[in-house]
């Protein structure tokens, strides 16, 4: 019977813990701040609160004597947080790069049922129809701000690879209007390519990935030699591309007059519905119209989910490991301080303040671990450049991005681990019979 | 071994602590098992004996550029070539254009070059006999709940069918099973259709193929054969690039992301944490047992035996936890695959991963046991018994 009761009690604590963790994960920062303020007030104003504060004070001031074992908690949790934040920052960076590429008031038109630009083709007649659709903004000289573009996957030698090892890069053939539709693209070195010449400008991300991307150098694209005349920067997915004259790209890759996509600037985001309906209703066309922001969000969806899932699985397994480590350390701490705690209880301290004090101590260590882990992830991975194949054809370069939000969620994980790791040892400290704790040495 | 009961008794001295330590070791090796499988499969990709024997010929311009059909017979005549086959991207997607599936149109003899794909004789016959037939990987079959004999509607994200839309209809006539489990994640997720049917139906293809696959008689001749194949179309408007399948896959994988580095740094962080946790526990355990160890020495255990006892204890702890962890990982791998609906495939843990894991268990056991063990060995009996 006694065993059954203690089993029930354990079960209740366990369920309560799960509920608390779920609330913890969901709670936004103001709630947590209020919680912290509440605890602080309780410690300042009530009797048992004051007791808890003084016991915690003793525990914390003697931490330096238990440096070895407490550092285990700190480093263990720092490891978890660093790995988790690093993985999530990879997903974040990837997603941000693609999200920033698109906007709500520009559209991309592809042939129906094409998953990516490179798989689509639009003939000249369709392009003319699309350019005249309502809602497209016009430039100062009255021409529609729509840019028909050719996208091909070109092979280029990879930086640091074997001599004949090729990587795939997205080569975009554009006309003069592309620069107006994509205003974020700026030449930072050299000049734009000239129409009718085999000249390319290189995105700053592609420059890092492939060999021979210096202004003035010749590179081989298709069966022809091209001259690199400039470097551009856009801060988004375009950075991973090479741009050249659409006619020259189409003739090199035998595309004729057809293009892959039309990217257009709308007069404003509200025009999208009308624009889409106009194209869908036109019997001459069979196209899919999406805003560029939606297009790039769709492109990044799978990869982001995969990276996130892996990050959370890895983080969870590590967190479980760290919880056991923290439990071990805190049990040992409580064991070595059993006498001290029993003495406190013998002279009138209640069980609850003791629990709170041990918990506070663990949470403090956990917070320290979380901060160190976050700082490590930030120092090592913020701005770290990685690349992967995206959109099925070309390498996409992106930076890891350690945002404040990620650091905050890392800290939340750390505190959650500290909470579990401290709870059971604290309960044990509070429930150990005073007499036996005093007798044992 | 005769002291095994002693070591066991030491481990069971504090059951909670041993259990907790064990669980963190299990967690660490569970992670190791999952990650190392991934790393290994990246390294092994295309590295099989069959992969080295096969050459891939694609367009030099870009991997999406098609090649003329006429190359087939000219490649077959290159000395050293055993057989040649070809395939084309189909770009199939199920229900939603973003739900893409690896799908190729292949020549009739395609399966002859890929012994890694097992197709039963009956299925093979049905495939050969059905113009609109497709062979589907077993993984895909279970993922979408398809059955042999049913119609399969697919969208092509690249090609229109004979009716001018992108909707195609196929008949599932058989399944593909991966015989080589290491690359299973790949062959399991494929759909093969007839190149001929594909070419006849789409107005856009006009008798072109995506790439050729050549099997050579002698692996050592691969380089020469590859150069000879590329020489056929040198300076034409369809220059080719030929490399072994292993090299092609390796360079493709490299572009996906620097997986090795990321996996490596995660494992580094995990093991550092692990060593620290276990080392601390071992040190504590030995400190607590000071007087017991002194008694052992008093009754005649030599210093060396005491050292070995402590070391054996830490290694045993590591081995139990580690083996458990890797076992759980091999059980969990398929579950992750099913849960992510095939988006993440965790390959089974191979011999290499197991031996690396075992070496790590013994190694870490030695490292974390060393300090406490040396401390135990140097214990002065008189001081220890007096509690000094």
UniProtKB/TrEMBL annotation, chain A:
Q: Which domain of life is it from?
A: Bacteria
Span of domain ABC3 transporter permease C-terminal: 313-433
Name its cellular compartments.
Cell membrane
Major place of localization? membrane
- Keyword Cell division carried by entry: no
- Keyword Membrane present in the record's keywords: the answer is yes
Coiled-coil regions in this chain? none
Mind telling me which InterPro entries this protein's record contains?
Answer: ABC3_permease_C (IPR003838), MacB_PCD (IPR025857), Macrolide_Exporter_MacB (IPR050250)
Mind listing the UniProt keywords for this protein, alphabetically?
Answer: Cell membrane, Membrane, Transmembrane, Transmembrane helix
Q: Cite the MacB-like periplasmic core domain residue spans from the record.
A: 72-279
Q: How does it sit in the membrane?
A: Multi-pass membrane protein
The UniProt transmembrane annotation reads 29-46, 67-91, 310-331, 352-381, 406-427
Name used for this protein in its record: ABC transporter permease
Q: Which organism is it from?
A: Lysobacter gummosus
UniProtKB/TrEMBL annotation, chain B:
From which lineage does this chain's organism come? Bacteria, Pseudomonadati, Pseudomonadota, Gammaproteobacteria, Lysobacterales
Principal location listed in the UniProt entry: membrane
Name its species.
Lysobacter gummosus
Q: InterPro entries under this entry?
A: ABC-4/HrtB_transporter, ABC3_permease_C, MacB_PCD
The signal peptide annotation in the UniProt record is none
Annotated membrane topology is: Multi-pass membrane protein
The residues covered by the MacB-like periplasmic core domain are 23-231
Superkingdom as given in the UniProt entry:
Bacteria
**Is this entry keyworded Cell membrane?**
yes
Q: Where is this protein localized, as stated in its record?
A: Cell membrane
| Residue spans crossing the bilayer | 259-279, 306-333, 353-374
Keywords from the named record: Cell membrane, Membrane, Transmembrane, Transmembrane helix
Sequence ranges assigned to domain ABC3 transporter permease C-terminal in this UniProt record? 266-381
Pfam families reported in the protein's UniProt record? FtsX, MacB_PCD
> What protein does this entry describe?
ABC transporter permease
